[in-house]
UniProtKB/TrEMBL annotation, chains A, B:
One of its GO terms (molecular function) is transcription cis-regulatory region binding. SMART domains: HTH_LACI. This is LacI family transcriptional regulator. CDD domains: HTH_LacI, PBP1_CcpB-like. Coiled coil: none annotated. PANTHER family: LACI-RELATED TRANSCRIPTIONAL REPRESSOR (PTHR30146), NTD BIOSYNTHESIS OPERON REGULATOR NTDR (PTHR30146:SF136). SUPFAM superfamilies: lambda repressor-like DNA-binding domains, Periplasmic binding protein-like I. InterPro entries: HTH_LacI, Lambda_DNA-bd_dom_sf, Peripla_BP/Lac1_sug-bd_dom, Peripla_BP_I. Residues 2-56 form the HTH lacI-type domain. Keywords: DNA-binding, Transcription, Transcription regulation. It comes from Halobacillus litoralis.
Length: 337, 337
DNA sequence: TTGTACGCGTTATCAA
DNA sequence: TTGATAACGCGTACAA
């Protein structure tokens, strides 16, 4: 492994001069610059990143915390983040918390130990008071998840409003008994969604029925289970608000081999507008999130803070969503009425 | 930022002793150990990772190169890899090459610059001769992709055999004109698949027709385009071998709004057994890959090399696949015959 | 325009 | 059982 010292010796110059060439600094004669470049090539020299990090106190690496990559929403998110970060010369470390408080804390340690310059939290299961101290070690930005009491930049959409709109849509289709199906931990985000759901209900003078709430549904197979629960125990349910397209898909898949008709017996809305939701038969009404824009903005905001600390207010960046009405809720009965 | 020096001073001991405590080394009195632990807590001391890296020449980080995370196969792959790596205390850097030779090389540089200890290549677009020199800087393991001329560990399944079986299945269903649809660069892997495809054809005395080959289909929307090409230009086609479930899904989706019946007019096989392939109507016949096992083995092999260099032969680990026959190829006509 | 010398924070060696 | 000291490889005041 050739070091800067080796290059200097071979070129008959000092480490300093070599360093200047490496970092494109002025005050080096063209002739010597060439001699050094030659020497670097001859030796196959590459600057040692660990030494640079120690010296500069910067790693040019960020960590992205998220629950799990299996969820395509996060897959898309990190894909866009990696691309954006790479444009700025930053590496991205993937950190799957699996909604575990401990794992989330472990990954936050990356900031303290200086393995990363900053952190994006798209997973948030710990309370703010335990996260906050890490801010001393570097910037943190929330993406998707959010928390009012914190004072850091947040990039997300209005989940409350989105849930509200989806629920109103179900009600407009004539649903009288809507089940609320969600998954993952009780995060601030999921609370917001629930608020939107209930506020739509109360607008239609309907109560929120705790019995018709399921809080463990995260993927397709959970969706299948949900359908069986409903068709066995809650036969009066005629609409479902779902926190994910996967759950909605599992539900619809299972309904196909029953005598329940979707949307007429059961209207279903998903969330995220995954490819899946378009391809299902019937296609799934869902909420479109501007994933790429949110990812780009998040990385931008974080890197901005790294490059120019303290110049950015702890702003909220709220992105627009869109309710995509598809066949899983379009009731024919109604259009005839 | 407290350093080891600060801790030493506060505890009234030397850096060396503190270092011993940090690294759980013997030869420290219990009393002094406690004093040091106390001091560390008081100062909120955390060892600086950059300094450790420089000193130890190890980063405890690996890079995973892959084409893109949008493809759920790679999403699942890296999810499993991150989990496994995390068990060993290793960080994972995501590197999306987008099938670009340049990006692939750029990411390989991480090894040279000592930003990572080792690399997993699940993307492989460069020739072996340009990849090989990087082996000097650390171990590389192939996953999914492979290359006979190389001499490093490879973890994958038998794509040739898988493609062969899928094609034979189409032929058994009575297909006479099978289109070959693939995407991405001409990798060794895709060549293997094609070999399997052609060898099945020739076994049934059918020629490989270059005209009925499409090499740019990678996702759902490409699948839709493919269907239109076929229904407009190649109406004689009655079966399709597809390199991905996404393409198969797009094709099937588009066929639904035409007068083509699947599988009777057109039988379709996918690849990877994504959730999607099960949920489509009709469900998609596909090849199941043992993603998690492959991911685990790959990480295991790489870390093995990091911990005990030179103890492992450059073996191939070939995992079994499985042809899952579903409705997109099960012809009713035939079962009556 | 170039070089000397120090420090970034750790750990390993060796002597006490 | 403990500590002084020398690396690890690089960047940068400061001096020349």
């Amino acid at each position: 492994m050739a070091t800067i010292e080796d290059v200097a010796k071979l070129a008959g110059l000092s480490r300093t001069t070599v360093s200047r060439v490496i970092n494109d600094q002025p005050y080096v004669t063209e002739e010597k610059r060439q001699r050094i470049i030659q020497a670097m090539n001859d030796l196959g020299y590459v600057p040692n990143s660990s030494a640079r990090r120690l010296r500069s106190q910067r790693t040019e690496t960020i960590a992205v915390l998220l629950p799990r990559l299996t969820n395509p929403f996060f897959g898309n998110l990190i894909e866009a983040m990696e691309e954006k970060a790479s444009e700025w010369g930053y590496q991205v470390i993937v950190c799957q918390t699996h909604d575990s408080k401990k794992k989330e804390m472990d990954y936050l340690q990356l900031l303290k130990t200086k393995q990363v310059d900053g952190i994006i939290m798209a997973s948030l299961v710990n309370d703010w008071e335990v996260v906050e101290p890490y801010l001393e070690s570097g910037p943190i930005v929330f993406c998707n998840e959010y928390m009012d009491e914190s004072c850091i930049p947040m990039v997300h959409m209005d989940h409350k409003q989105a849930a509200y709109e989806a629920t109103v849509h179900l009600l407009e289709q004539g649903c009288k008994q809507i089940a609320y199906v969600t998954g993952g931990p009780e995060s601030h985000l999921s609370k917001e969604r629930r608020k939107g759901f209930t506020s739509a209900l109360s607008e239609y003078n309907l109560p929120f029925i705790e019995d018709m709430t399921i809080d463990w549904a995260m993927d397709v197979s959970d969706g299948q289970k949900v359908f069986h629960m409903i068709s066995n125990e809650f036969t009066q349910v005629d609409g479902i608000f779902t926190g994910s397209d996967e759950v909605a898909a599992g539900l619809i898949y299972e309904a196909a081999s029953s005598d329940w008709r979707i949307p007429d017996d059961l209207a279903v809305v998903g969330f995220d507008n995954q490819m899946l939701s378009l391809l299902m038969v019937p296609s799934v009404t869902t909420i479109e999130q501007p994933v790429k824009q949110m990812a780009d903005k998040t990385v931008e905001v974080l890197i901005q803070q790294l490059l120019h600390p303290g110049t950015l207010p702890a702003q909220k960046y709220v992105f627009p969503h869109q309710l995509l009405i598809r066949n899983s809720t379009k009731r024919k009965k109604l259009s005839i009425q």
